[in-house]
Write a structure and sequence with these properties.
Blueprint (H helix, E strand, L loop, with lengths): L9 H19 L7 H28 L5 H24 L4 H32 L16
Amino acid sequence: MVTLLKTGNSQVDEQHSVMQDCLSDLAAHLDGPCDNAALLVSLEALHDYADWHFTFEERLLERAKYPWQIDHVAEHRAIIDQINTLRDKLATGNVDMKRLIPVISHWIVDHVNNEDMRAVKYIEDVQTGTTQVKHRPKEGSLLL
């Protein structure tokens, strides 16, 4: 079971909860023999939801003129690319999903618990008029 921190933005947190459910669904496949067809359905669900969520989040960043939006969006694209790579490898049977599901889960959890927390704090500061450019994402935060 993965745990995503609450950012304090109810819409983002609700969406992260759905993404956490997608990750938990993927992790459930690790308990028994790997059914590639069922796993592919779960991976597709994660891909589609993550892509939709990232688009939503990127609109928030753009409206707030988040100074590190380019880096944040690059992480989104890298996560989607990794999910696509896993999906392609799974379709050909050329991947050890029991090893890679925890890795993709870690990438998403790290992104939410670090980068999204910083971005939401910045957005809150913009909304309250207390914006100070002090929420710089850590150097080298792109894990993928």
